[in-house]
UniProtKB/TrEMBL annotation:
Pfam families: Flavodoxin_2. Belongs to the azoreductase type 1 family. GO terms for molecular function: electron transfer activity; FMN binding; oxidoreductase activity, acting on NAD(P)H as acceptor; oxidoreductase activity, acting on NAD(P)H, quinone or similar compound as acceptor. Homodimer. Its EC number is 1.6.5.-, 1.7.1.17. Binds 1 FMN per subunit. Its cofactor is FMN. It comes from Chenggangzhangella methanolivorans. This is FMN dependent NADH:quinone oxidoreductase.
Amino acid sequence: MKLLHVDASILGDNSVSRTVSAAAVARFKNEAPELEIVRRDLAGAPIAHLSGAHLAALALGSDAPAGVRAENEEGARALQEFLDADVVVIGAPMYNFGVPSQLKAWVDRVLVAGKTFRYGEDGRPVGLAGGKRVVVAISRGGFYGADTPMAAFEHVQSYLKAVFAFIGVTDVEFLVAEGVMAGPSLREKAIESAVGATVRLKAA
């Protein structure tokens, strides 16, 4: 079994989402010692944001600028890592109500027509990446749960749930640590709760 571990936080060792995603990966590894883990750190080694030059390079082939071709090749590697994985664990902090741009760049390389989705004869999208399990570790500075006044500002969990549903992934779990900027005690409580929730993760 292969697990892809993706992190997007720019905060390094101070990152809550990285702490929780690492705990999730450790749980899976404890459950299945033979687990093969592939690591992708989107802050340490960002994927180039998709541009018109990247799309043009796909048509130009070897005539495209070398730098753009190299960025497309890295994007293709990111896609293949996702396709090869049985389990995907993602550390996704909320930045200004949405996902970090580094994570959005990764999503743009994973949602590829003909690879992870296609459009049927009726024009409706058909997901091609079903059968995977995705676990997302989310950190939020404030409180954005469904029962809070700020619920309408939450665009990480809702966005990623839609992204994976679009490509056919329905087995998606969220480990949420929120209120991490509301004070030291609330931060610790949020981390403890989210990390504690990893005990329910089973390899099979």
